[in-house]
Amino acid sequence: MAPGDPILGLTEKYLADPRSNKVNLGVGVYSDDQGRLPVLKAVQQVEQALVRDQSPRGYLPIDGLPAYTAATQKLLFGAGSAVLEAGRAATVQTIGGSGALRVGADMLKQVLGDKATLAISNPSWGNHHAVFRTAGFKLIDYRYYDAPTRGLDFAGMLEDLGKLEPGTVVLLHACCHNPTGVDLDATQWAQVVALLKERNLLPFVDMAYQGFDKGIDADATAVRLLADSGIENFVVANSYSKSFSLYGERVGALSFVGADRDEAARLRSKIKQTIRANYSSPAAHGAKLVAGVLGSPELRTLWEQELREMRERIHAMRAGFVDKLAALGAPDFGFINQQAGMFSYSGLSKEQVDRLREEHAIYALSSGRICVAALTTGNLDYVARAVAEVCR
Ligand code: LMR
């Protein structure tokens, strides 16, 4: 019997829990203030048009829907980006962000062979380890989270990255670090990018939450700095699960940047070979939804507005949670307001997390990670009281 997944396995337990007051702060899924998964209005409009048109259901190309990958490139690198103008990026549609990571890992493993090594932040999303290990990578941690300050161990991060062998693949969270919610600022990113270049490391950026902290462009700072850095090769995996609320449609993409147009063409051919031998070609529906929204100026504006509402609601829930905990006399949770994105590394111990689940039907990861995007004005008080109680 394989062990249950620490995140998706917890959702299985949550779904089987008969208690009506249960709250799932485990998996990274955004709820609206009514506790429902939103269906974005911009997405609904494209979907209605698709239903009306009833177009044939042929296979997509191996590398996906061209309108989807083109729109993705603009979102990642910015319209008018020099990387795009030079044709240096090969972008393919993938089965979600995890699929992008796995296709990228498989392709790199083929090229790097026994040398394939991934440096990964400590801590990181559990599936990062699983994906790269299964693809045959050796994993090394670099320092990232500083528990005493609940912030970033930036000096430790630089020191560890500075010691890596040239050619090591370095996994970076573009924004809304999962699981800690602790991000680099633009100045720190510039320093990291300079170091990656100097040490000849291969950046592999995971951007699953673009638009969930500050906005589309600000959240892509790491990608934009890499694009302008003169680093010849880097990789970006991205996902629309959260930003379009399209979790189950598995909409992701993988972009390999090469030195020039020729190298990008070779990279694309290798990625296509990897995909063909895995799942042949991606699914069409979710990609049509995203491409439809991003391809229409009107719907794109509507989507950006809906995305802004999502991030503002998360910010409001963070602030509300901190205030309620303070009013209840709990230890200081003010750091939750400094963290970005869906998650907070709450500092709760495994025992406290167990008590939350057993005594209050509140589900969180055993690492103490909570999904603040699942807090609502309806459950905030209940969750804060329970957290204050297990902290007593
Ligand atoms: C999470 O970290 O909860 C999300 O990214 C969902 C997942 O697949 O783990």
TrEMBL record:
The keyword Nucleus does not apply. One of its GO terms (cellular component) is cytosol. Keywords: Aminotransferase, Pyridoxal phosphate, Transferase. The keyword Mitochondrion does not apply. PROSITE patterns: AA_TRANSFER_CLASS_1 (PS00105). GO terms for biological process: L-phenylalanine biosynthetic process from chorismate via phenylpyruvate. Residues 21-386 form the Aminotransferase class I/classII large domain. CDD domains: AAT_like. It is an enzyme of class 2 (transferase). GO terms for molecular function: identical protein binding; L-tyrosine-2-oxoglutarate transaminase activity; pyridoxal phosphate binding. Its EC number is 2.6.1.-. Its cofactor is pyridoxal 5'-phosphate. PANTHER family: AROMATIC-AMINO-ACID AMINOTRANSFERASE (PTHR11879:SF37), ASPARTATE AMINOTRANSFERASE (PTHR11879). Homodimer. Belongs to the class-I pyridoxal-phosphate-dependent aminotransferase family. This is Aminotransferase.
